[in-house]
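User: quick one, sequence for these C-alpha cells?
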C-alpha cells in the first residue's frame, strides 16, 4: 500500500492482504491509519459527518467501519456522547504488553519451526530498515521501523489470527505512547537492541528468540510506565498534533 496523501506512518498495521476490499474495508484501514499516525488524536471525538465527508464516503459504511474499530478496541462508544479515540494509560500498559508478548512469542516459535528462507529474509530486511532509520535520528521513523520489524516477525510465523491480533496491538502500543507522554520517545539504541531477534531467528533458536522478545518488551514497559527510572537513552520528538483532516480514500464517484 502506498498512500499519496496521508500523515506519516508505518505501513505495518495495513500489510494484511485483502482481496477486492470493500468500501467498509478501506474506511476501516484509513481510520486505523489515522489513529496510528496521530492524525486522529487519542481521546478525541469522532465527528461522523465531518470525517465521512473528508474521506468522501457516505455515513452508512462509515458507521460500519467505526464499529469495527470499536470491536478492535481502538474507538470507544459512550451512549449520548458518541465515539472517541481510545486512550491507554500507564495502568493498562502491563496488560497490553502481556498480550503482545503472548502473541509475539507464540509467533516466534512458529517462525523458527516453519518460516521459509524468504520469510526469514523479510525479517532481516525489516531489521535493515530499522538500522537505516536509526541513522536518521528521526524518532517517528525509528518507532515505525521498530513496530514493522515486530509485525514482520509475527507474519513470518504464518498464523493469520496472530497476525490480525498483532495488527491491532501495535496500533494500541502507539496509542499508549501518545497517551502517557507529551513527547514521542524511542530507544536511541533501538537497532542494536533488536539485532538479537533477527540473529536468533536466523539461527532457528526458538528459546533464544523468545527470551530476546520477552526482554525487549519488558524494557519497553519500564520505559512507558516509569520513564524517569529507565536506564535507557531515548530520542524524543514533540507529541504529534496534526489537524484531524483526512483526504478522500478513493475518487468519490467510485464509492
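Assistant:
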Amino acid at each position: 500500500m502506498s498512500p499519496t496523501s496521508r500523515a506519516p506512518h508505518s505501513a505495518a498495521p495495513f500489510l494484511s492482504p485483502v482481496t477486492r476490499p470493500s468500501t467498509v474495508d478501506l474506511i476501516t484501514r484509513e481510520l486505523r491509519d489515522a489513529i496510528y499516525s496521530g492524525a486522529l488524536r487519542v481521546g478525541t471525538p469522532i465527528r461522523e459527518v465531518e470525517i465521512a465527508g473528508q474521506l468522501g464516503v457516505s455515513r452508512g459504511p462509515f458507521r460500519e467501519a467505526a464499529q469495527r474499530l470499536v470491536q478492535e478496541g481502538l474507538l470507544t462508544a459512550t451512549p449520548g456522547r458518541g465515539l472517541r479515540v481510545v486512550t491507554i494509560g500507564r495502568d493498562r500498559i502491563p496488560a497490553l504488553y502481556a498480550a503482545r508478548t503472548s502473541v509475539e512469542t507464540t509467533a516466534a516459535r512458529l517462525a523458527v519451526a516453519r518460516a521459509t528462507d524468504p520469510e526469514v529474509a523479510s525479517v532481516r530486511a525489516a531489521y535493515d530498515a530499522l538500522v537505516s532509520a536509526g541513522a536518521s535520528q528521526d524518532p517517528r521513523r525509528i518507532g515505525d521501523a521498530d513496530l514493522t520489524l515486530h509485525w514482520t516477525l509475527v507474519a513470518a510465523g504464518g498464523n493469520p489470527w496472530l497476525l490480525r491480533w498483532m495488527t491491532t496491538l501495535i496500533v494500541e502500543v502507539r496509542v499508549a505512547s501518545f497517551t502517557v507522554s507529551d513527547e514521542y520517545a524511542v530507544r536511541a539504541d533501538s537497532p542494536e537492541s533488536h539485532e538479537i531477534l533477527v540473529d536468533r531467528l536466523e539461527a532457528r533458536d526458538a528459546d533464544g528468540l523468545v527470551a530476546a522478545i520477552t526482554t525487549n518488551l519488558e524494557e519497553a514497559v519500564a520505559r512507558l510506565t516509569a520513564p524517569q527510572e529507565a536506564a535507557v537513552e531515548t530520542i524524543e520528538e514533540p507529541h504529534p498534533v496534526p489537524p484531524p483532516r483526512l483526504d478522500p480514500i478513493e475518487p468519490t464517484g467510485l464509492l
